[in-house]
Amino acid sequence: MDVLSNLGDGFLAVLTPINMLWVFVGALLGTAVGVLPGLGSAMAVALLLPVTFSLDPIGAFIMFAGVLFGGLFGDSIAGILMNTPGNSTAIAGSIEGHRMARNGRAAQALATSAIGAFIGGIIASTLVVFFAPRLAELATLFGPAEYLALAVFAFVAISAVVSDSVLRGLASLAVGLAIAVVGIDGISGAIRFTGGVPELFDGIDIVVITVGLLALGEVFAVAARRGTREDTGVIPSGGRLWLSWSELKQAGPAWLRGTAIGVPFGIIPVGGSEVPTFLAYGTERRLDRRRRKPMFGRGAIQGVAGPEAAGNATAGTAMGALLALGLPTSATAAIMLAAFRQYGLQPGPLLFERAPDLVWALLASFFIGMVVLLILNLPFAPLWAKLLKVPRHYLYAGITVFAMLGVYATSSKIIDLVLVLVIGLLAFMMRRYGLPLAPMLIAIILGPLAETELRRALAVSEGDPSVLVSSPITIALYGILVVTLAIVGVQRFRAHRRAVAA
């Protein structure tokens, strides 16, 4: 009952005219910044951090809650409409979301994203309120071997299971791993594959890679198709605000599955929502293959619902881990940690005792912020979809300009503009020859983590490789992976035999 009483006090603190204004302003600004390619939700929090310094702590963190969840939805808007997600966490949902938009279902895709974000965020926030200390204990169960197993699971699942061709998936994975090792080795300090360019010592920024692969790669692909049979002309911008009963039946279980996948990852420091969103996407794609008429590749609503719910569920429990343990498990959580310190506060177990008014107001603002976002963005989904009515040469020229500005704004380095062009051309070639982008992205995101944890595990065990499969978590992850690969292999073999017989 103490939890409910404290949460009620938090709602009373938030439900004042001035604090509701900050929630609304934060949600609006977060969405606006998140829509811009190359910026995204983490950048929205970082850019708006100085704006809050003149506010009292409760007002500032209430505004941050709106910015956080508004930025996540803004990431998805850009990805669904223009295939240029504002952040890497929106990549998985953009794959099928953009295909829905190209089929004239942009408004349904945005509505699915908004409702999925609401469901995932609400469930995660409820769990944080009641179980934050217990959920945070799960993070202590993961050591170097467990993190490596998690990374290997994601590598193989995305490359071999999600991709249509295992060989092409593994080739894309190899390209991603090659890009991931550019820079200074974090353990030995050795300089690798930089060509003697000092600007590459820190590696290639994920913003540069994401914008190059998805934004410029799509621009080049559209430009190459112009005037050919593959040119589909203007993307239809229709679609209805509401979801039909059949669409709700397809999206409903995907929202719940995505939430279940995303909740645990918020308290595991793997860098953000990329892993759970891709795992949710892979899960929905595997389930779709059992249907009589698979929809993936043609705009499957489950491919939007699962990743969107997973991403917001991860963001919600990440804030719980930050408050309960002081453990930032994502880039956005790390920026929020800096905001806490700006006000002389240290997140952790003692925060609930030292600043209970702030903590419970912040937790209450999660619920209110997501309701405000749903009210704010769901009716405007058809309006956002009208962006597709902009003539394509103007639309994609604008995407290119904003993408380049976003990349330059994050680093102020000319070399990043060169790199984003090179990566954009690479993405165009991969699209042309049928290499999937998802394995490459997951390799770039998780490659450094996998390498570091492998070396740490072997260093602790003095070179004994058995340490990599010495815990129940690692055995379970590798076991699930082997069983999944066996099932997928049998299914593809049977499908091949049926095709040959036909």
TrEMBL record:
It holds the Pfam family TctA. Keywords: Membrane, Transmembrane, Transmembrane helix. The keyword Membrane applies. Residues 20-441 form the DUF112 domain. The chain crosses the membrane at residues 21-49, 61-81, 109-132, 144-163, 170-191, 203-223, 321-340, 360-381, 393-426, 433-450, 470-490. InterPro entries: DUF112_TM. This is Tripartite tricarboxylate transporter permease TctA. The gene is tctA_2.
